[in-house]
Design a protein that fits this description.
rod-shaped, 2 domains, 13 helices
């Protein structure tokens, strides 16, 4: 605004002086030229808001040989503004034509004398050169500045857009990381439940049997005590393996910390990579890596034998040709049978259980069914958190399988799962 006011004052002073001189040439009072020139020159203060009007005023006062500053600044502002190019070309042509006419008239008036009469073409060449000198530089400079300004604005808009996209990506990465952390906590809780609940449940069952037969059958009591010790050691071994996996996962998750200190896309890439890795792990793909050396279908017979040693009548039947599956598929199948047998120990002491395993072309099917409790064996008093069936369902559905559980018509309970082969 300060610049526009200074330019408007300078233009008004210029038009005042030129208007007074032009009025004297016409034989009019100088005040008339001043009254016309001052408002016309002062209109330059409106050049940013109405550049077309300012150029029209400069064209209108061109015949009076006024407004050199308003003409130059007005053309520059018009070319640099967002006015349509057609309007800019028309007004620039009108200003050029007006300047040519005025320069041609002034050339004949000042140069032509009684002894010297220049030709038409020299006069036209002089007028065209004068008009180009007045109109071309501000017009070209305005076009350049306008194009550069639009380019800078577009680059700024793109930068703002990229910043918003990066911010959105960071928010999504944080959301995915939070979701992955929740999934990881659920998976860890499920693993802890599977590892501890079954072993401890059998230990409690054997301890109850040990207490019952300690005085009557010392040999059987000794075997039960050995079984309790073996199961306790197995539980501790599995817990150590799980804690080792958790420590390894924690160290790997902390590895990209230097990358998080980087700015912009590198930091977002590091966050997204950690989130994606955790999402894949929660979905079950990383479960196979964590389960290397873990339980598999080959240990199913040993699992059933443990329940038999605890006094449960368990029947295991296998259908189809035995083959291997992906590690996380075999681990999930093993855990389903393990948790189902644990539930039988808890809720149906003395009931018979049937474990069925079927190897199919593209999937493995499991079913664990038990009859009603015979009522003769007292319950071991095992607590139940209600997470066993939930954990089994989560495991199976995470691999794209189907899980169904519910009571049978005979008063027992049935657990069924079909897990696709992900080999």
């Amino acid at each position: 605004m300060v610049l526009d006011v200074v330019l408007a004052l300078a233009s008004a002073l210029e038009c005042l002086l030129e208007g007074v001189a032009f009025a004297h040439e016409l034989g009019l009072p100088g005040a008339v030229g001043g009254l016309v020139g001052v408002p016309a020159g002062a209109s330059l203060v409106l050049r940013r808001r109405w550049p077309v009007a300012v150029v029209l005023v400069s064209i209108a006062i061109t015949p009076a040989e006024m407004g050199f500053l308003i003409s130059v600044v007005g053309l520059y502002t018009l070319a640099a503004s967002e006015v349509a190019r057609r309007i800019t070309v028309v007004l620039a042509a009108a200003s050029f034509a007006g300047t040519v006419i005025v320069a041609l008239a002034r050339f004949h008036q000042d140069v032509a004398t009684g002894a010297y009469h220049p030709g038409l073409w020299p006069a036209i060449a002089f007028a065209v050169v004068m008009a180009l000198g007045v109109t071309a530089p501000p017009l070209l400079l305005g076009l350049y500045v306008g194009a550069r300004r639009r380019l800078v604005e577009s680059l700024r808009e793109r930068a703002d857009g990229l910043e918003r996209e990066l911010s959105l990506l960071a928010e999504r990465a944080e959301e995915r990381a939070e979701w992955a952390r929740n999934e990881e906590r659920t998976r860890i809780a499920r693993e802890m439940h599977d590892v501890v609940a079954h072993r401890v449940s059998l230990m409690v069952v054997h301890s109850a049997a040990l207490q019952a037969v300690a005085l009557k059958d010392p040999e059987k009591a000794s075997r039960n005590a050995a079984l309790v010790g073996d199961m306790g050691r197995q539980a501790l071994t599995e817990l150590r393996e799980m804690l080792g996996v958790l420590r390894t996962s924690s160290s790997e998750a902390a590895a990209p910390a230097p990358a998080r200190a980087a700015a912009g896309p590198e930091r977002l890439a590091a966050v997204a990579a950690v989130a994606a890795a955790r999402v894949r792990g929660a979905a079950g793909e990383a479960a196979g890596d964590a389960a290397d050396g873990g339980p598999s279908l080959e240990g199913l017979e040993h699992l059933v034998d443990q329940s038999r040693e605890a006094g449960m009548v368990v029947e295991l039947t296998v259908h189809g040709d035995q083959r291997s599956y992906a590690p996380h598929v075999e681990q999930t199948a093993y855990r389903v049978v393990q948790e189902a047998l644990t539930n039988v120990h808890k809720h149906a002491p003395g009931a018979k259980a049937v474990v069925r395993l079927a190897h199919r072309g593209a999937e493995v099917a499991l079913q664990v069914e038990n009859g009603p409790s015979d009522g003769e064996q007292p319950g071991a008093g095992l607590p139940s958190g209600g997470n066993g069936l939930v954990g089994m369902r989560e495991r199976v559905t995470a691999l794209g399988g189907v899980f169904v559980s519910g009571p049978t018509d005979a008063g027992g309970f049935r657990v069924s799962a079909v897990i696709p082969d992900a080999a």
